[in-house]
Amino acid sequence: MAFSFQPFFPQSVQSISLANTLTTSVSNVVVGGVNGTKIEALVVTSTDTIDHAITIAINTAGVLANVANVNIPAGSGATLGVLPVNLFANNQFAFLPQDANGNKYLYLANASCGITWISNSAVASAKAVGIGGQASVF
Questions:
Q1: Phi then psi for 81, rounded to 5 degrees?
Q2: Computed from CA positions of residues 75, 77, 82, 83, in that sequence, does the dihedral angle turn out positive or negative?
Q3: Cys-Cys link to 104, which of 43, 88, 133, 138 (CB 3.0-4.6 A)?
Q4: Structural contact between residues 91 and 71, judged by C-beta atoms closer than 8 angstroms
Q5: How far apart are CA 89 and CA 133, in angstroms?
Q6: Structural domains of the chain, ranges and CATH numbers in brackets
């Protein structure tokens, strides 16, 4: 690839919002754009009355690589005093690079890459575990 001083900018900003897709089978959270995606934030909330241990994995062309296991406390972001879980601020994601402002981010190379999640337990009836965030699509 030839070097260029031309800046490149995201084609669009993607809002990530999934409600109650957390199950005991693998589900996609984010799929990369054709020219890549920069995930800037992932936050998990729960209205369930039990904790959930979730596994976050990177899916590259159908091959899953587990990245982290994170505990989501009961009522995260839905109960007074129980904050939502910022995945990138979690110690499990200490390996991520940081931008100039100290915020962690994760690049997905192209459309064959993605982020998935799975839970060790099912979400109770009439309860929800959701994930939200922001990404830039190139």
A1: 90, -5
A2: positive
A3: 88
A4: no
A5: 13
A6: 18-137 (2.60.120)
First CA to last CA across the chain, in angstroms? 17
pLDDT in tens, 95-130: 999 999 899 999 999 999 999 998 888 888 888 888
* H helical segments located in the chain: none
Give the span between the Cα atoms of 36 and 114, in whole angstroms.
Answer: 10
* Residue 106: both structure tokens together: 């994760």
Helix, strand, or coil here: 87?
Answer: helix
Length of the chain: 138
The answer to whether 123 and 47 are in contact (CB under 8 A) is no
Rounded Cα distance, 47 and 130, in Å: 9
- Using CA atoms, how far residue 12 sits from 6, 35, 37, 42, in Å, is 18, 12, 10, 17
Q: How confident is the model at residue 21 (pLDDT cuts 50, 70, 90)?
A: low
Q: Token pair of 121, please?
A: 């337990």
